[in-house]
Amino acid sequence: MISIPSLSRIVPTLALVLGLCASLAVQAQEVVHVETGHVDRLAAFPSRFVAPRNVDVWLPAGYAPSHRYQVLYMQDGQMLFDDKTTWNGQSWHVDRALERLMKSGAIPDTIVVGIWNNGDYRHAEYFPQKFLETMPVDQRQKLIDGALKGKPLADNYLRFLVEELKPEIDRRYSTRPGPASTFIAGSSMGALISVYAMNEYPQVFGGAAGLSTHWIGVMTRNAVIPLAAFNYLERHLADPRTHRLYQDHGSLDLDALYEPYQSFVDELVREHGYGEDRFMTRVFDGQGHNERAWAMRLEIPLTFLLRGEKAE
After folding, report:
1. Which range of residues forms the domain containing residue 283?
2. Per the domain annotation, does 268 fall within a domain?
3. Closest CA to 294 of 78, 84, 34, 92
4. Distance between CA 240 and CA 243 in Å, rounded?
5. pTM score, two decimals?
6. What is the pLDDT of residues 96-118, one digit of tens each?
């Protein structure tokens, strides 16, 4: 005979399970702390192209659906707002920078979409896939097998951004969806994929900012990957009449390796018709490769990229 537990034993167990589920749901929705504005977390945002990841959407103070906002998409979304939630105790403090710039009238009202990176597969998603096409076969395969963990994912990552995430952001929030009001930014490998995104989808992104752009692609100086990047840019740079590009680097840590590669990119971009109103490149002596350094200079690329039509 099968024994059926009494109701008095089932109810506490069921309550414990339901409480645990509720606790997990709260944890999934827990957001970072910001000093100004508000963050909506789109937890485990699904995709047909890449693994799910959290997306944090920062809305400025006073956000109103009756008003239209330009949108800045940013890589490494878990590093953007709150020192207490990052692996190294540093963050970009994007909310503070944008609040100051919007209050001063330097830029129009802006929403930030912080896309979390995919941990172990960050490099595979952020390394521009078409760079591989002009690399020697043996070095290309070594890069794929090593840093890219067997499969380049950048083109799928961009499809996720363009075909899935952006339409959902435009549906949920009061955005100005055209390329003149849609921008993308990141640092290091996140800078590399941001530049790639603008040039792969110029009809979507009207500008890109790369802080400490990792043109070397790996952790050591080399010629093969930067040359592949130059070849790509030579063929695919977006129209300078309609796009803006910001680049910079420091002088310490990894940034100390970037100068010769960035200088070549600067010349290439200028030769393609990018004047001072459409291209800015900066060197920050004494700054290294970390969120604290990027936060210190963040208002410069934000002002250049997001300044709006009035400044043109």
Report:
1. 38-311
2. yes
3. 92
4. 5
5. 0.90
6. 999 999 999 999 999 999 999 99
